[in-house]
Amino acid sequence: MSWPVFWTKKTWRTRLLWPLSKVVSWEATRRLKNFNQLPPAKQTLAKVIVVGNLVVGGSGKTPFIIWLTRQLQARGLKVGIISRGYGGQSNSWPLLVTAESDPSQVGDEPVLLAKQLGCSIAVSPKRPEAIRLLNDTESLDVIISDDGLQHYALARDIEVVLIDSQRQFGNGLCLPAGPLREPLARLQHVNLCVWNGLDEQADFPISKDIQPFQYRMSLRPLRLRQVKNPEKVIAIRPDFSNDLPFNGEEVNTIAGIGNPNRFFETLEALGFDVCSKAFADHHDFQLKDFQVFGDEKRLLMTEKDAVKCFELAKRYQKDNWWYLEVAPSCDEALLTQVLKLLSTESLNE
Predict the structure, then answer these.
(1) 3-state DSSP assignment of residue 189
(2) Rounded CA gap, 211 and 159, in Å?
């Protein structure tokens, strides 16, 4: 979601909402203390990794989960995923998700994960219910929770916090005066911090005294895929520093993700001349959303948005709708630390 200005710098609105922010901070601290003193009973024999964030809006959790799942699968571990299924309108929970599931029923991100990974995925607003459904489906070594850092009914073994290196923590205040769901002191209790998009030469923005295990994640543009027929692709050369692959091409772009500007800037870095329109995170796209654009120029979107636009593109034969496929990659030391925390020797006994 787009942040209001007073979440990025302190204004009169920030000061006005500051008392409510203190209440949210106090309540979040109280809930964490109760969780640490009396954690919930473990709901599965599998190791549970919670991938979350401290702020409202996106931070790169979905591509990180894709990277982590593939890395664990490559090492012989059976991985399942649970999610709240944000935006899903189903009347019954929990539900198993496949690549053919309807995003309007189960949420866009679970369907995207199912298309990418092919592993067992269950969704429910109550994540322990999703875990029980996975337990009934197959025996798993690892269950990854898409979000849920603040869902304290869920027992967990490892906590990973994703941080958008552009927006970071905004003004550092809790809702509603700032973007934080919990105070920054929460980082003292997590296992790993992963910075999405932090330059390799840049120092980590937070002190090592707060969180010693910090790593980087980057997203490399791979190709454009046609929304109505993903088998049709336009490859992007891996090294285009001196020759932008789409030099000057005028395109229309939409994004219904947590930080739309990051996507638009990525397209500009590829050489596109971008006319952009941002929507709320998890927006349910309708044909009228695209009427401001003509069909002459290419229309680009994220893969997450393409999951929801697939049927529209097929029904109305939108040959000029494309999505950008990206490849997530992380520091090698991050996987080493995850495997250490998982104690893979005991998992494979």
Answers:
(1) helix
(2) 12
The length of the chain in residues reads 349
| Model pLDDT for residues 281-337, shown as the tens digit of each residue | 889 999 999 988 988 899 999 999 999 999 999 999 999 999 999 999 999 999 999
| Burial class (CB within 10 angstroms; exposed 0-12, middle 13-18, buried 19+) of 133 | buried
Residue 185 DSSP SS3? helix
If you search the block for the tokens 């006005």, which residue do you land on?
16
Name the residue ranges covered by the structural domains of the chain.
5-217+330-347, 220-327
Report the candidate in 47, 45, 39 with the shortest Cα–Cα distance to residue 143: 47
In Å, how far are 86, 120, 217 from 104, measured between CA atoms?
10, 19, 29
The topology under which CATH files domain 5-217+330-347 is Rossmann fold (3.40.50)
Residue 182 to residue 60: CA distance in whole angstroms: 18
Please check whether the two domains, 5-217+330-347 and 220-327, share a CATH topology.
yes
Structure pTM?
Answer: 0.93
Rounded to the nearest 10 degrees, how much is the dihedral formed by the CA atoms of 194, 198, 200, 202? -110
What is the four-CA torsion angle of 315, 318, 319, 320, rounded to 10 degrees? -160
Query: Residue 271's closest CA among 225, 237, 305?
Result: 237
Q: Where are the beta strands (DSSP E) in 227-272?
A: 233-235, 250-255
Q: Residue 180: which of 345, 340, 64, 22 has the closest Cα?
A: 22
In the numeric block, which tokens belong to residue 29? 């601290």
Pairing of strands 120-123, 192-196: unpaired
**For residues 102 and 89, what is the distance between their CA atoms, to the nearest angstrom?**
10
Third-level CATH fold of 220-327: Rossmann fold (3.40.50)
Contact 30, 111 (CB under 8 A): no
Say if CB 129 and CB 154 are below 8 A apart: no
